[in-house]
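Handout, section 4.2: multi-component inputs.
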Amino acid sequence: MRFTAKTGEILKVIQFLTSVVPTRTTIEILNNILFELKGNTLRLSATDTEIFQVFSLEVDGKKDGSVTIPAKTLSNFLREINDEVIVFEAVGARISLETKQGKFQLSGESAENFPLIPMVEDSEELEISYELFNKIINKVSFAVSNDSLRQALRGILLELSEKGVTFVATDGTKLSKYFSGDVKFSGTEKSVIIPTKAFSMALKNVEGEGSFKLLIAKQHFVCKTENSELYSRIIDDQYPDYKRVIPTDNDKILTVSVSKLISGLKRISILANSETHQVKIDLSENSVQLVTENPQTGSFGQETIDCVYENAEIEVGFNATILLDTLRQIETENVVLNLKQPTSAVLVLPEKTEKSKDDFFMIAMPIRINS
Amino acid sequence: MTKIKKLPQNLANKIAAGEVVERPASIIKELVENSLDAGAKSITVTFEDGGKRLIRIADDGFGMDEEDLLLAFERHATSKIASVDDLMNIQTMGFRGEALASIASVAKIEAKTCLQNSTEGVFLRIDGGEVQELKKVIAVPGTTLTIKNLFFNIPARRKFLRSKSAETMQILNILKKFTIAYPEISFLVFDESERVLAYKSETLEERLQEIFGKRTFSTLIPIETQVGDVKITGFVEKPESVRKSIGEQHIFLNRRAISSRLLNKAVFSGYGNLITKGDYPLFALFLEMPATEFDINVHPAKLEVKFSEEQEIFNAVFNTVRDVFSLSFAIPSFKETALKQVYRPKFDPQQITLDREKPFVYSKKEQKNEFPFSVKDFPPEELLRPTEMIRKQETETPKQVHNSMSGKFWQVHNTYIFSQIKSGLVVIDQHVAHERILFERALRSFEENQFSSQKLLFPQTLQLTKEDHLILLEIMPYLEKIGFELKDYGNNSIVVEGVPSDVRFSDESSILVEMLEYYKENEYKESDVKINIAASFACHSAIKAGVKLTEEEMRVLVDELFGTESPYFCPHGRPIVVNLSLVELNKKFQRS
Ligand SMILES: Nc1ncnc2c1ncn2[C@@H]1O[C@H](COP(=O)(O)OP(=O)(O)OP(=O)(O)O)[C@@H](O)[C@H]1O
Ligand SMILES: [Mg+2]
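Output:
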């Protein structure tokens, strides 16, 4: 393999691919980036076995071939190169780099052992605008679990239908659900669970594009642009029956300024127990009272916020972190909380406005405080 | 069948002497063995109040005539051996001729027995060792023995019996061994009027599925070898699916459940490094060999065995297990290993005791070396060194150490936290530190009734065995005080609706299973239930080694640690903090 490329261009691609390279792996070759040259097209790939990312680059090709090169060494090295162009040559696994400054050698590994690009058959298309995609992913991915042993909870559920697409994420203490009719899908109705990382990589792939397509196959999720391809495994697990736990008869309705509630909670939670972050929310006529008490340290906090509330008085305990996580996703001025009982699921919704046609809500699970 | 005869004195003297009637479970063991010796095809066991009020065993075996029935309750009266030679070649479960006599002396007995092909049987009632009633009755072939009011005449021993659920568990444990060893015999078990077991399989495969469920059964690998006179068959758990199944290591010798440290060790060693120290794989191993090759007459309970060729038996078992795993299917699949690493601690803190000094609150008493990987496998010097180091520094109190911390923390290998203090630096083990915090927190919750419980969006159902369900119900009030919200859904299932809000769980239901196993293992060593529960909660809920912490999380952890009563030692006595003094460092670098 031999080619000449612009240092800056190739460095950018390597840095992009580095975010796929696993930080810790027992499979040596995954630390490397696969180089494949055919004519003037150089394909660079990286994978952590869950995600497979390919990037194509136009170079001045001299001799076709392929090799893998350690990602970290290569990107560190290229960052220190001041020359505009660089010549890559690989003989076996020996890699020579040449710039005006000098000649450098490092050893790579044969391309043979690099995982193969996933085979994707029978995929169906999903079309979405970058702006909407970015918004939805941000609004749901906070609820994904990072450490659950249940694989399903580590991904985002997509329910695809002709009417639109629903995105759901939950870690068992909070849930976020976003339905949009502006996501176009014309295949057969189905649900898939996609790893969060695949979505964040996809966002990077399509950054700056207006509208783009995502492919859903039986076992893979694929995102292709003009010069990049992203493949991700679909999580093969049963998603919990979330519809069953969505409260339908929460009859106590609180409407309150999001920013006031957030800043109040932040203040109060500093004084709360540093492990449980527990705060109590007392609702009475047009008033929200936030209370925290920590007998261990002797700290105490209480603050009252104006609101609209006309139902029976109720006191609900929360882990402030969980409630704050949901409140931060609200873009309207006010947030609406629907409650029922002190320890039943609470719906967190943006205020209804005329132009919002998407259906977005969250659930926060309270804590029972015994003291 | 042979008639019952009194054993001659010289033979009676050769039989291991001692009491076999300790508790309801031991009575059940003796009676089931008698039914097996009588060729029963189906055995029904009923017990009330953990066997303290009533035990009834009904079999369809060959029965006894009137003469034998009366003799059966005499000391040293048996139909199973007649000479010293027989004693060297025992083919039956019983041979001492002692069991019924012992039972008759401590309880009220009713016996009804009828020979095969007959409809007339005999009924006998014995009270305090005296025959009270003997009559002919209409009956079906087989024998039914009813034991009432155990130890009614010995209040001191009656007091020694444990709670109903503890005795029930013991009974179920004993019965489990029989149901595994005799898959072709059907067992029906009633706890009062509730039917708790109904096994009617024919093969070992089917029986194991009945007992452990299909899922667990699918993690078992069959084994079968013949080495000389010794035949080994059974099932062992795949190393990658091993969960801590304490108490599920079953070894049978000619279908008799035995407890053998030697053979346990052989199995564990056969797994080699495929399992970690502290793993307890499930296995059911059947050894068959001529009765002349071993001696079961070591102890009256017939649990211990002396083999004439100890080393050979060890090797046979060891090689059999090892060979099974050298086949390719034992290689764990990618997904499973990734999952297991998340929640499996590198090694089990329980394995460690420091016996030279005992500076800790909670220590395990009399660690029995039942299993091969024990205290001895850990170099105790390595553990003692840090302890001594802290001892030397005793001039600095924990409070002073804490106050002089620089406020900056570094995490090393996602396991240890480093911080500078006035006299040098401290290294803190994050897992044991958190364990100490949670341990004291749990004990406090029991006293102060202050806790909070994070409600779960998706309540988790836990399907338990009968025994585990009983234990869980017993300790449920404590678990609730820690912050678990549990509901009993009957049918041995529990629903987890909430979890303590100060810990993050990656799997809400497996944490309870792990805690239960820990609890069971320590139940007999740790008499204080609260301490046992608090320790099991702390051990399984504490952040594991290998988890990355932010600086803020480290700060909170360290602050809380130094707020505990005993910040230097975890509930198991492992050191939490190691102090590296400047003096020591200077010495190391030869700086004076
Ligand atoms: N269920 C039964 N059916 C038929 N015969 C029985 C039954 N139970 C006991 N017997 C007879 O009564 C005798 C005495 O039983 P016991 O359990 O006291 O002694 P054992 O079984 O001979 O020896 P061990 O004390 O070791 O159990 C037995 O040898 C057997 O002949
Ligand atoms: Mg007997």
